[in-house]
Amino acid sequence: MKYLFLLLLISSVAIHASENWVLKEGCPPSFELRDGQCFLVNRYQFYDSLQNRGVGGTQTGLPEFRDGFSPQQIDLGRYLFFDPLLSKDGSLSCASCHQPELGFADGRPRSIGMDGQVVKRAAPSLWNVGFLKKLFWDARASTLEEQAVGPLFAADEMANTPQKLMADLVANPLYPELFKQAYPGQATPLSLENVLHALAAFQTSLVSLNSPYDRYALGHHAALSDEEIAGMNVYRSFVARCSECHTPPLFTNQQIAVIGTPEPEGVPLDIGAEETFHAAKLKGGFKVPTLRNIVKTAPYMHSGRFDSLRDAVEFYTKGRGHAVPAGVEMQIHWHIWEPKLTDQEIDDIVTFLGALTDESLIPETPDKVPSGLSPLTGFQPTLNQQQAEHTDE
Ligand code: HEC
Ligand code: HEC
Fold this sequence. Notes:
By secondary structure, the protein is mainly α. The chain is 32% helix and 4% strand. The protein has a two-stranded antiparallel sheet. It has a two-stranded antiparallel ribbon with strand order 3-4. The relative contact order is 0.16. The structure holds heme C (2 copies). One heme C binds at residues 240-242, 244-246, 257, 259, 261, 286, 288-289, 291, 294, 297, 300-302, 309, 312-313, 316, 333, 335-336, 349.
């Protein structure tokens, strides 16, 4: 049994290696190829930046975007993103916790990493990360490259080491050649630096800017229903103040705000950005998350405390600081107060948030990845586990 399985494994790797894998030569849709690099094209580029318009208006521009990757780098990043080879034992890929069909989140209150360990926070969506200046709920990373080092090498996430990761990639029958295609002319195309760079390249292709809201904002009045427009008006009113922080068109102003959301029962207070910036006034502060594709990414908040979008919205009407544990000094943001929204207004906001959905540029999940492992988009048993089960027999 054992030998049969090994044989199967070896032959599948051999078939794999004999194939000629060529990375894509074209940019993802919405990107334009110029001098071998992909640049984002979108209609917001015709509008002024935020500074000139104030918050909440429809005709505001987007913040600066990280583009300029080659098509091959983006495609290589796609394989890496879906390949469980990047984890210690082949059991987890980036996509295990950032599943395309769940808004690139994982549907869990808090993610589950290596050997079933519960990670401290919920997995955020990755849509539009190419616009973000700070990453992680507590803003502790400034680039996508810096960010990826976190999950790759954290013991409770993918639990790998740089040495093992590089050894696995070098020994793989396909990756050395794919890195050459993506980084031609470099002395060492297969480097940790390029792994991080390619992952960043792929993630910047996750652009969502064509929701019904966008079509409305760009001039097609009929793109939103009356209820959605009613919700939008509450959303950006001075009473609700949502757009002060979740500012269109990105639906985040990228700042840190202390709003005092509750932790799940029995979970100690997460001090958030206080730790990043060593500043007590940021205790319980988190990066304002985007609300794009928000209907896909329940449960909500850093802790996944709210199961439904309605519960997350209702939090804001329950009174400033209502969920802050007794005895904790928290400096709640001035835009968090007691708007006393009616049930109807809460429903309307929720309806409006549904109009922020656009997954038209969702990338293809590869049928197979260079390791030959199943490109994980869930927690199916991995090849390694299956193998272990078989050898036990
Ligand atoms: C075990 C689950 C898990 C895996 C595997 C995982 N992530 Fe995450 N990811 C998370 C969680 C949880 C957070 C939020 C952590 C925090 O803020 O402290 C996160 C945050 C992020 C962010 C920040 C997004 C933002 O808006 O700030 C990016 C980008 C990201 N992950 C990319 C990746 C990449 C690339 C990989 C693979 C190398 C990966 N993740 C693997 C769970 C995971
Ligand atoms: C002062 C800034 C601020 C204002 C005003 C604000 N929010 Fe938030 N919002 C945040 C922050 C910060 C978080 C993350 C908090 C956490 O995880 O504990 C958040 C989280 C959310 C989430 C969950 C997102 C996710 O991915 O889990 C939703 C939904 C949301 N806000 C909707 C709203 C609505 C609707 C309003 C208006 C009624 C509003 N917010 C007003 C700062 C703000």
